[in-house]
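re: ur question from yesterday

yeah so i grabbed the chain u mentioned. its 491 aa long if i counted rite. heres the sequnce exactly as i have it in my notes:
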Amino acid sequence: MDKTRSLKAQAVRGVFWSFLDRIGQQGIRFVIMVILARLLVPEQFGLIGMLTIFMEVARSFVDSGFSAALIQKKEVTDVDISSAFYINVGIGLAEMGLFYVGAPWVANFYHQPILTPLMRVLSLSLVIGSLTCVHTALLCRRIDFQTQLKVGIAATVLSGGIGIGMAAQGFGVWSLVAQYLANSFFRTVFLWGLSVWHPRLVFSLASVREMFGFGSRLLAAGLLNTIFEDLYLVVIGRLFSAAQLGLYTSARRIETLAATNTTNVVTHVAFPVFSQIQDDPVRLKRSLRKAMTMLALVHFPIIVGLAVTARPLVYVLLSAKWAASIPWLQLLCLVGASYPFQALLLNTLKAKGRSDLFFNLEVFKKVLTVLAIVITYRWGVAGMIWGQVVLSVVCYYINSYYVIRLVHYRLPEQLADLAPYAAMSTLMGLGVYFVRFLSLPGAAALLLVQVLVGIVLYAGLSYVFGLPAFVEATHAAGDRLRALIPSLGRS
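ran it thru and got these structure tokens back, copy pasting raw so excuse formatting
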């Protein structure tokens, strides 16, 4: 019982600090993006978008699944940790060399010569980032998101200041490159400064083989996911203009801000917590159901609210030059509606050590992604996003398949758990939508009133109908704040 209470306390504490981390860090990033969007033009964001798939794939290779293996493994030694560290750094160095050699080919593919120097400079971040993979994994293993909060916010603020300063001085796309590199640099410096672990001169091939046996399938699945998620950027960048890619990238970034923040808050905590109870199917199912409803409580109103307020949001934050991205943003909200729940289901497979099933699911879904692109590209960017909407519904069922078998959390149970939160969010969205018919002085006033109405309406509906996750979340937040305030006073 004490162990159960301790794990629950760790999970609650982890969610609290992870929430602050995501809200603080991503909130600052969003403000920085808004400022940069006003200083730069869509084409410049489009150029970075063309390189996104290469950078994300390379970052996945740097980690190679060792972080997940260190988190999932019941007992880890210093030999395990140091071995993973040296592998990460070696891969980072190798990738930097590949990027330097391959940059001209990428530039020729997109017919954009400037991509050659951009890609070569960005490759430095791969080596810098490789120095922190193990440190981050150890923090996640200890469910220590407070340290990650400090590091993330500090790195984001400093790198954002550099990017904005360079953009204001007319450096154009290079300001985005500088921001990216500076973030990696500051994050590395702060993590090493705060970490109690530093690499030792030890290395074990046996340890590497053991961890890679688990992590390799996650690496393969992660690579597939990254490639096919960013495949849309490649297709849009190749078939359409850099400006259209910039508009799509902006819309996806805003939607991702809403969809992945809630996802990361819960899944980053869920994976290490689920891993500790992987052999207890009853507790695992109970924890999964609670995580699903907590996600629904936060995610559904955010994604619905974003779709309804998309027009005034874009005009107020990004300006009229980004207006063409509004319908794409609204469609992407439909795509992102189920994403956090899919990620949570997949985390359950990882926690159970079934990286083989995880990989099989990813392969099958990527075949569907290719089919969706082949069928929809002829209808332009909007047609491709509609294809993503349909695909997201199909993929939710696919991701549920093995979880239903392993944890006995049936699809009707999942939908029944999620339905009340979807219903309250829909009612909230209708209320927010009708605010647009009021006589308000401009887009800023409309956005402000819509946000306030949405918050009050959703909180009121959740309270009146007594949504279980809402009741539990308010109690947990109150307890945590009461515990935090005295400690702040003592410091």
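noticed a couple things. The chain has two domains: 28-239, 248-491. also Residues 28-239 form one domain.
anyway ttyl
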